[in-house]
């Protein structure tokens, strides 16, 4: 049996001394599954959707760990790259001036409501794709902070209620209020804010117990 995990740095195992201790590999050991971890630092939800559609057919179980709702992907002649509106431009550094200009512009002029709606649309479309292809899947959130004090997460949810109601919470661990950050609160973190070994154990155990709750394993 084969497990596919897709996400950002929290799935990749950023700041771990040994990336084989990241939660996808720990979950794979619990299940006795072969593991492919396509988590990558800084990746957007667009990356997650693209990787899931491209590779899901090869796997028995897919675990999707969504990134921040505002991470978005762009492309130019030099390839794909990500931006994170509202994150004050600290995460991504570009040598190309026009990429810096785009980052500065989007940080000043973006709509959290639009970005949150796109995040929900990604979830809805991917859950439909996986169901139509008879794939077992679990979704969860890495973290979901909101930087816009004038449009906090609760208000975003009210504005996007027509989309929120279409998210299938049965296969979405922690939806809509819990993320990996809540589960691992108080555990040791690296300088970049990523939970370390204990946190990854907690996440792997939470997913494993949820899979048992769904009756997919005895």
Task: Name some characteristics of this structure.
9 helices; single chain; 218 residues; two-stranded antiparallel ribbon; Rossmann fold; 41% helix; alpha/beta; 6 strands; 14% strand
The portion of residues forming beta strands comes to: 5-15%
Biggest β-sheet description:
4 strands, parallel
Rg of Cα set: 17 Å
- CATH architecture grouping: 3-Layer(aba) Sandwich
- The whole-number mean of residue pLDDT values reads 94
Give the end-to-end Cα distance, rounded to a whole number of Å. 15 Å
Query: Widest sheet: strand order?
Result: 2-1-3-6
Look at the structure and name the CATH superfamily: SGNH hydrolase
Could you write a compact summary of the structure shown?
This protein is α/β, with parallel strands linked by helices and about 220 residues long. Helix content is about 40%, strand content about 15%. It has 9 helices and 6 strands; from the N terminus they run E-H-H-E-H-E-E-E-H-H-E-H-H-H-H.
Task: Give the arrangement of secondary structure elements.
Elements (H helix, E strand, L loop, with lengths): L1 E5 L2 H4 L10 H9 L2 E4 L7 H11 L5 E6 L5 E5 L2 E5 L13 H12 L3 H21 L3 E6 L11 H7 L1 H4 L15 H4 L13 H17 L5
Helix pairs in contact: 2-9, 3-5
């Amino acid at each position: 049996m084969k497990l596919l995990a897709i996400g950002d740095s929290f799935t990749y195992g950023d700041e771990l001394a040994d990336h084989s201790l990241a939660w996808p590999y720990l979950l794979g050991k619990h299940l006795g599954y072969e593991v492919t971890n396509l988590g990558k630092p800084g990746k957007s939800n667009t990356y997650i959707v693209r990787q899931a559609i491209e590779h899901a057919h090869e796997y028995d179980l897919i675990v999707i760990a969504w990134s921040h709702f505002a991470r978005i992907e762009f492309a130019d002649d030099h390839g794909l790259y990500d931006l994170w509106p509202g994150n004050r431009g600290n995460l991504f550094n570009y040598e190309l001036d026009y990429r810096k200009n785009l980052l500065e512009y989007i940080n000043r002029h973006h709509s959290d409501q639009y970005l949150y709606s796109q995040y929900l649309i990604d979830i809805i479309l991917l859950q439909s794709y996986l169901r139509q292809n008879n794939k077992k899947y679990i979704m969860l959130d890495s973290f979901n902070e909101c930087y816009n004090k004038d449009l906090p997460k609760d208000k975003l949810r009210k504005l996007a209620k027509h989309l929120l109601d279409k998210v299938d919470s049965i296969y979405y661990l922690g939806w809509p209020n819990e993320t990996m950050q809540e589960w691992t609160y108080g555990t040791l973190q690296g300088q970049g804010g990523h939970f370390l070994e204990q946190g990854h154990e907690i996440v792997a155990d939470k997913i494993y117990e949820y899979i048992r709750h769904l009756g997919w394993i005895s």
